[in-house]
Amino acid sequence: MNRYREKLWYLLNSTPLIGPVSTARLLEYAGDIEELTELSPDDIRRSGILDDRMLASWMSTMARRQELFDEYDECEGRGIHFLSMEHEDYPQRLRNIPQPPYGISYIGRNPSAYEGCAAVIGARGCTDYGREIAYRIAQELGKQGICVVSGMAAGIDTASHWGCLDAGCASIAVLGGGVDDCYPAGNRRLYDKLCREGTVISEQPMGMPPLPNNFRQRNRLISGLADCVIVAEARKKSGTQITVTYALDQGRDVFCVPGRITDVLSSGCNDMIAQGAQIVCSVETILDYFGVGRENDKAPVLTQKEQRVAECLDCGPLHIDALCAVSGMMIDELMELLTIMEIRKIVVRQPGGYYRMAARI
Length: 361
Known about the structure:
Distance between the termini: 45 Å
Structural class: alpha/beta
Strand content: 5-15%
CATH architecture of the largest domain: 3-Layer(aba) Sandwich
Order of helices and strands: HHHHHHEHEEHEHEHEHEHEHEHHEHHEE
Oligomer: single chain
Helix content: 40-55%
Number of strands: 12
Shape: elongated
Largest sheet: 9 strands, mixed
Number of helices: 17
CATH topology of the largest domain: Rossmann fold
CATH class of the largest domain: Alpha Beta
C-alpha cells in the first residue's frame, strides 16, 4: 500500500458533488490519480467532465490539499480507516459491483473480514410485527456467525442490527453521511456498539451530513456488501425497493417476508414476491441459503388452553376483554395463562391491553 497515493485518493474522495461516474471519467482523462490531482483548473475545465458547481468543489478541495492530508493522519489516530480501491484490504464484494466507490472510510472491523453477509432491510416506520421479524431473522443469522448488513435507520434497520449484535455476531452499518456522524442521533448507543463490535462504513467524506441524495448511493453499498438481501417489511414505493433494484443489478438474491394484502407496509414485499423474489416463511430458508442449520429451536408445544388462545389471536391482536369473550375463559384464568404464554414468548403484550401472537420465523 502506497501511503501517498492513499492520501491522494482520500483527497479525491473528500470532494463533494463528484461521485463514482465523474471520478471514472476524470481518471480516464488524466490517466492516473497522481496526474489527475496535478491538473490545473483550466485542464479540468477543458475536459468538459465537470459542470461549474463541480469544478468549484474540485478547486476548493485541491486548495485544502495539506489540510486534508493532515486530516487523513488524524483519522488514523482516531480509529477511522480509509481504503481506496487500490488498497489490498478494499472489500472484494464492492470491487465487483457497478460503479463501486473509489474510497470508503470505516470504524471497527475491516469490512473485508466478514465471510457470510446478509442485508436485512425495510421500512423506517415499521409495525411491531415487522420489527420483531427483522430482529428474529437477524438474531438467528447472527447465531450462525452470519453478519447482518443494514443502514442504521430507525425501524427495521435498527432492529436487524440489534438482533445480530445480541446474538454475539458483528454487524455492518452503512451510513448516508460521514462515518464520524451518528445518524439518527437517537441511535448513539447502537452506533457506539457497532464501532466497538462491528463496522460502521461510508463512502462519504468526514463531516458530510446525511443529505437525502446520499441515501440512494448508500443503498447500493448495503446490497453490495451482502450475499443476499432480505426485506422484512416495505411499502410499494420506498428506499427499500431502491436497494432491491441495486441488489438485482449486482446479481444478489432477494428474499421477502410476506404479509397480509391489506397491510400497506407489506405491499412492497408482496409485490416483490409476485415479481419473482423468494418468499421467506421461516428463517430456515435463509439458513439453507448459507448452508447452515438451526438447532434446538422447535416451536413450543401448547397446552389445550394455550392452543385455544392462539387460535383466537390467529387473525390479529385482540384486547384482553375481547379475548376473554372469544375464548370463553374467566378473566383471572386468562390473565394467568397470558402471563405464562408471554414468559414462554408465545404471545406479546401490546400497549392498551392488547395481545398478539409472537412472531416465529
